Amino acid sequence: MSLAERPEEAAARASPRRPLGPSDASPDEGVVEDLPLIDEKAVEQLTKGLLSHYLPDLQRSKSALQELTQNQVVLLETLEQEISKFKECNSILDINALFSEAKHYHNKLVNIRNEMMMLHEKTSKLKKRALKLQQKRQKEELEREQQREKELEREKQLTAKPARRT
User: How far is CA 122 from the centre of its chain?
Assistant: First the structure.
């Protein structure tokens, strides 16, 4: 754009491509005519300067945000691992409770086994005693039977026998 251009041409080039209607009236109407003519090369250079000024900071901010996001991902994974460790600790507590309960029931089983052994010993002694008593009764019955037989034989011998004639 040169200084020789007229403000109407600059306004026509700066305005949107559609025609302006009565509803498009703005309070800034006529401001374009008040602005000095702007050189496009200057605008491009200003844009490049602005970008060169802010772009490195924006790129550093972008990389810092990416690093922060990566760190957050790592942190989240670490938190997940810690949560799983706490869950394992809770399950270990449950396992400890199971072990203590198992120990309690083991003690009960040991007591029952001891009682069973004691009862077995008592029954064994009772069986031996019963066998001895049975043997003693059989012996007494045998002795009584033998005694009866002796008495019967004695009675037979004591009974009068007729003499034999020869």
Answer: 50
State the pTM of this model.
0.40
Q: Token pair 């394992």 is at which residue?
A: 88
Whole-angstrom distance, CA of residue 163 vs CA of residue 53: 165
For residue 2, what pLDDT is reported?
44
SS (H, E, C) the chain: CCCCCCHHHHHHHHCCCCCCCHHHCCCCCCHHHHCCCCCHHHHHHHHHHHHHHHHHHHHHHHHHHHHHHHHHHHHHHHHHHHHHHHHHHHHHHHHHHHHHHHHHHHHHHHHHHHHHHHHHHHHHHHHHHHHHHHHHHHHHHHHHHHHHHHHHHHHHHHCCCCCCCC
Contact 10, 32 (CB under 8 A): yes
pLDDT in tens, 124-155: 999 999 999 999 999 999 999 999 999 998 88
Distances (CA, A) of 114 to 26, 100, 101: 105, 21, 20
Q: What integer pLDDT is reported at residue 62 of this predicted model?
A: 95
Q: Would you give the distance in Å from CA 158 to the centre of its chain?
A: 101
**Exposure b/e, 125-136, CB count within 10 A at least 16 = b:** eeeeeeeeeeee
Q: What is the pLDDT of residue 156?
A: 84
